[in-house]
Design a protein that fits this description.
about 525 residues, Methanol Dehydrogenase, Chain A, 5-stranded mixed sheet, 2 helices, about 0% helix, disordered N terminus
């Protein structure tokens, strides 16, 4: 693999931040990662910390002064296409991923510190990256040709490169990995191409494989009997698309697992089709199954459970919540291993009916609901806040033919006109699922990540390029700013540098039909108070 690393002006600044006295790259340590959810000076993971709560205790920017926010700077990657990251911040440096490029940028000035360019060695299935794992001075990320690479966080230099799967068969790695106890965790994407996805752990130092878990069980593996009469050569699925959640106290890693394939022709795969459309809890040390919750058995509408779940505490008991493309928010009690609620977030129609050749009208369509962005949890009010798109369509059965490396739908989805789509940011009681408030944008989708803060703020962005801040108690709009009409499909990070709070948002996503008259290059815009 050819690696092209360009060291830019400001590398000395980054090196001074990240290098210790002995010259070895420092941090974040395992202790830093364990405390990432509560840290105010960083945003270390795709969803901030292991719990996936996407909540910051910062409150310098709050509901009384957020209207005064000003844009400090903008970092433009020059790329277009999928841009669904949340900027990841460590020691005043923002780490930013596009499909092929990795950047280190000053998190207060947007000055480029280094750039790493990855050159694929095989087919790129779906060029998208949702970001990095950061640990001990190393960045880890997946690639669109199904490799896992390690990059020096101080210089951008490639450290190692491991081929995980065969991209010519439809595999790729879109998820932002996580690191725990010297293992880096990532899994396959590619369910819509008919792959049989797996989850992996790799040694952080060498890239050697520690364990593998089959998300589509076969033979004598538990769950294999849920694929009744299935032709094992022509069924599959089970992508882990986004990122992962982990409980350091129990050592369990939680995966949101996507749809089975062929997507719409479920008659080829009778049964529940484990572990698709599920939250699966594995023992992070050895990859063995602990338990799972399946949201949709035998899915035939491409209703992935895609966004990572969130862990939160209620009355001393751990709960896990997950939002799905089918438009439901689920909550489970981890102590009792029971479902607490299933709450519709948007219009739900004909989900229990099977697709037909003539076409079945359904709500939502497969580009709606909650895609790659899950809930944020506000501990002070015990509230879950989540983005979901209300948008219907028609699903039709069609030819079922598996051609490796090509989409394997077994039909087609016709979307209603985009003008009929409604974006929503919705708050729910985390104990009961009761809706508390809703912010809606008719004709404008909201697919990016939502972030909450102790400043009583809900931060997110819409497909027309508008960053907005809502009152966390009422949902009232407190602030809006358009970021160059760049569709926002990424998330918002907030962090403090030298005692000053900043907000960084990823804009310019042109996947999932979010492009306008012309593509807008992906960029990160940084805001603070004057």
């Amino acid at each position: 693999m050819k690696n092209n690393t360009t060291k830019m002006l400001g590398l000395a600044t980054l090196t001074a931040l990240l290098l210790g006295a002995a010259g070895a790259v420092q941090g974040p340590t395992q202790e830093d990662l364990n405390n990432a959810d509560s840290a105010t000076d960083s945003w270390l993971m795709y969803n901030k910390g292991y719990s996936g709560q996407r909540h910051s205790t910062l409150n310098e920017i709050n509901s009384t002064n957020v209207a005064q926010l000003k844009r400090v700077c903008t970092f433009d990657t020059g790329d277009d296409g999928s841009f669904q990251i949340t900027p990841q911040i460590y020691k005043g440096v923002a780490f930013i991923a596009t499909a092929r490029r990795s950047y280190a940028v000053d998190a207060t000035t947007c000055k480029t510190l280094w750039k790493n360019v990855y050159t694929p060695t095989s087919a790129e299935v779906n060029p998208v990256s949702r970001g990095f794992a950061i640990a001990d001075g190393v960045l880890y990320r997946g690639t669109s040709d199904a490799h896992l690479i390690a990059i020096d966080a101080g210089t951008g230099k490639l450290l190692w490169n491991v081929k995980v799967d065969d991209s010519s068969q439809g595999y790729f790695l879109s998820a932002a990995p996580i690191v725990w106890n010297n293992k880096v965790y990532i899994g396959d994407a590619g369910a819509d191409w008919g792959v049989k996805a797996k989850m992996y752990a790799f040694d952080t130092k060498t890239g050697s494989k520690a364990w593998t878990f089959d998300l589509i069980p076969t033979g004598n593996q538990p769950g294999a009997d849920s694929w009744k009469k299935a032709d094992s050569t022509a069924t599959g699925g089970g992508s882990v698309w986004t990122s992962f959640t982990l409980d350091p106290a129990t050592g369990l890693i939680y995966l949101s697992v996507g749809n089975p394939a062929p997507d719409f022709a479920s008659q080829y795969r009778p049964g529940a089709n484990l572990y698709t459309n599920s939250v699966v809890a594995l023992k992070a040390e050895d990859g063995t199954l602990d338990h799972y919750y399946q949201q949709i058995p035998n899915d035939n509408k491409d209703y992935d459970t895609a966004a990572a779940p969130v862990l939160y505490d209620l009355g001393g008991q751990t709960h896990v919540a997950v939002a799905t493309k089918a438009g439901h928010l689920f909550s489970y009690n981890e102590t009792q291993k029971t479902q607490v609620f299933k709450q519709a977030m948007i219009t739900v129609k004909n989900q229990e009916k099977n697709p037909t050749e003539a076409g079945l009208p359904i709500c939502p369509n497969y580009s709606a609901g909650s895609q790659w962005s899950g809930p944020s949890y506000m501990p002070s009010t015990k509230t879950l806040v989540v983005n979901a798109v209300d948008w219907c369509g028609v699903v039709k059965l069609g030819e079922v033919r598996l051609i490796k490396g090509q989409l394997f739908f077994g039909g087609a989805m016709q979307l209603d006109p985009a003008a009929k789509a409604v974006g929503n940011t919705v708050a729910f009681d985390a104990a009961t699922g009761k809706e508390l408030w809703r912010y809606s944008t008719p004709g404008i989708r909201i697919v990016g990540g939502v972030t909450t803060t102790d400043g009583n703020l809900v931060l997110s962005g819409a497909a027309n390029g508008t960053l907005y801040a809502l009152d966390g108690t009422t949902g009232k709009v407190l602030f809006k700013a358009n970021i160059d009409k760049a569709p926002i499909g990424g998330g918002v990070a907030t962090y403090s540098v030298a005692g000053k709070q900043y907000i960084a948002v990823a804009a310019g996503n042109t996947s999932k039909g979010l492009n306008g008259a012309k593509n807008v290059t992906s960029r990160v815009a940084i805001f603070s108070l004057p």
